[in-house]
From TrEMBL:
Gene3D superfamilies: 3.30.420.40, Exopolyphosphatase. Domain 2 (3.30.420.150), Hypothetical protein af1432 (1.10.3210.10). It comes from the Bacteria. Keywords: Hydrolase. InterPro entries: ATPase_NBD, GppA/Ppx_hydrolase, HD/PDEase_dom, Ppx_GppA_C, Ppx_GppA_N, PyroPPase_GppA_Ppx. SUPFAM superfamilies: Actin-like ATPase domain (SSF53067), HD-domain/PDEase-like (SSF109604). It holds the Pfam family Ppx-GppA. The keyword tRNA processing does not apply. Residues 327-482 form the Ppx/GppA phosphatase C-terminal domain. Residues 22-305 form the Ppx/GppA phosphatase N-terminal domain. GO terms for molecular function: pyrophosphatase activity. This is Ppx/GppA family phosphatase. It comes from Candidatus Mucispirillum faecigallinarum.
Length: 508
């Protein structure tokens, strides 16, 4: 049973928007239970006059009063509220923070750009296998942009720069639309900053965050009919096309472009220019966006300060595997059974890979399905395989595309009961190659699940002998273990493997 520690909240007070995230801490992970956003552009006046206007202060108070009401309704026990560039630059930033505290009780912490970058790095480490790449992290807010660079999982540097999209817009792109000279000046300024602080080459993955850059990725996803996930990939071809599309357009014309947020139509050009320059600088085929990066980093940091180390922070734990465990915990899965089925699936995959003509990368799909095959029991044990399909298709799985998530969900759906059929709509929607992959991987998962029918983890190893007309499987088990139920589970679930291979499957 899960161990619920606390309900915690984090508040990100940016130049363009204010965000609240409420999460319930469960074991070594968390589950977001409320998310609130107000797009308020409180930083605009700061870049013109150097201080918050009375109107901005009133707006800030109103939004944070609403947030306090939400937190009270969720019984929040711990809160961390941080403010970024606009508060750092405003001459009255500290006075405004004190005023808000006196009115709402919310203690606003004005964090440094370096702390902002550290929190973003923490969030990126949660969502990505940072150790596999040379990663440039870019968190573009309204008033500042934080850059962090990591090589093979080790943070090399973090730098805060005054390159926020609102600030750049105010300093360089005053025309509507901006003229060629204004755009050239902006590009020259960005190049100077990049040359001063960023590597000249070697970046193999670009991860961006911030509301305006996320708006760009949302437009891309909408045009590609992709799901709205926290982590998105935007290819360079689109980034170039979108830059050409909005350059030379007035704000009112940008507003007519489907997906452009009205509150970002005036500042989206500067963000698009910055991203395109980075893609060209490092000859990348695209960039990843991370929605809610600062909030994720804040939540992880709060949990760490509570003495809780998240699963992905445990030594050499694979980030993707850690996220699967965390997802399972959110649905109260039997982790020992899930890990046993995953382990047996891996053994069977290696033994049967050549026969089934599977690629090495196919195992990641099987691994995800094996870890999550029973999460549907959170809804009901009856038909839980179907519930697992639904939950997986509606759960974010960073590192997997929409097509891959559909395959994973189908593999999990077929871990019991019916074999795949074209009369099943969700299976029929897949491509021919994806349907074949689902059938092959599900045939392995069915047997692995059957071999832990009693959830006792009695089977320690599996041996496979492939003959012309049959597949012979033998087991290594704990002494004194009764595996009659596992044998029955095997016999019940070997059908799909027999159908695919045209061989009898026997357990000796």
């Amino acid at each position: 049973m899960e161990n619920i520690h606390k309900t915690i909240a984090v508040i990100d007070i940016g130049s363009n928007s204010i965000r609240l995230q409420v999460a319930r801490v469960i074991d070594r992970t968390y589950k977001v239970i409320n998310d609130y956003k107000a797009t308020v552009r409180i930083g605009d006046n700061v870049y013109k006059t150097g201080e918050f206007s009375e109107e901005a202060i009133d707006t800030l108070l109103q939004v944070l009063t609403n947030i306090k009401t939400i937190m009270d309704s969720e019984n929040v026990e711990m809160c961390r509220a941080v403010a970024t560039a606009s508060f750092r630059e405003a001459s009255n930033g500290h006075q405004v923070a004190e005023y808000i505290k006196s009115k709402t009780g919310i203690d606003i912490e004005i964090i440094t750009g370096e702390e902002e970058a550290r929190l973003m790095y923490l969030a990126a480490s949660y969502y990505f296998q940072i150790s596999d790449y040379n990663v440039l992290l870019v968190d573009m807010g309204g008033g500042s942009t934080e850059f962090s660079y990591a090589e093979n999982g080790s943070l090399v540097f973090s730098e805060s720069t005054p390159l926020g999209c609102s600030k750049l817009n105010y300093e360089f792109l005053q025309g509507d639309p901006p003229n060629d000279n204004q755009i050239k000046s902006l590009r020259a300024h960005l190049k100077d900053v990049f040359d001063e602080i960023l590597p000249k080459k070697g970046v193999t993955k670009l991860i961006c965050s911030g509301g305006t850059i996320n708006n760009i990725s949302a437009i891309y996803n909408k045009r590609q009919n992709l799901s709205d996930a926290s982590v998105k990939f935007v290819d360079t071809v689109f980034a170039k096309h979108f830059l050409n599309e909005i350059t030379g357009k007035k704000i009112e014309e940008r507003l007519k472009i489907s997906g452009v947020e009205p509150t970002r139509a005036d500042i989206i050009l500067s963000a698009t220019i910055l991203v395109n320059m980075l893609l060209k600088r490092y000859s990348l085929d695209g960039f990843y966006t991370l929605s809610g990066g600062l909030r994720a980093g804040l939540t992880i940091d709060v949990m760490n300060k509570m003495g809780i180390e998240l699963i992905f922070q445990g030594g050499n734990t694979d980030v993707h595997y850690a996220r699967l465990v965390e997802t399972g915990k959110k649905y109260y899965f039997d982790d020992a059974h899930a890990e046993q089925v995953t382990r047996l699936s891996h053994i069977l995959f290696e033994k049967l890979q050549k026969l089934l003509d599977l690629k090495d990368e196919d195992y990641k799909l099987l691994e995800a399905a094996a870890m999550l095959h029973d999460i549907g029991q959170h809804i009901s044990y009856s038909k839980h395989h179907k519930h697992s399909y639904y939950l997986i298709t509606n759960t974010e799985l960073p590192g997997f595309s929409d097509d891959e998530i559909a395959i994973i969900a189908n593999i999990a759906r077929y871990h019991r009961r019916s074999m795949p059929k074209l009369s099943h709509e969700h299976y029929l929607k897949l491509s021919n190659s994806a349907r074949l992959k689902v059938s092959k991987l599900a045939s392995i998962l069915r047997i692995a699940d059957g071999l832990d029918r009693t959830h006792s983890q009695a089977v320690k190893d599996v041996n496979v002998d492939i003959e012309d007309d049959k597949i012979i499987i033998s087991l290594e088990v704990d002494k004194n273990s009764n595996i009659e139920m596992e044998k029955a589970g095997f016999d019940k679930k070997k059908d799909l493997l027999e159908k695919i291979t045209g061989r009898a499957v026997e357990l000796i």
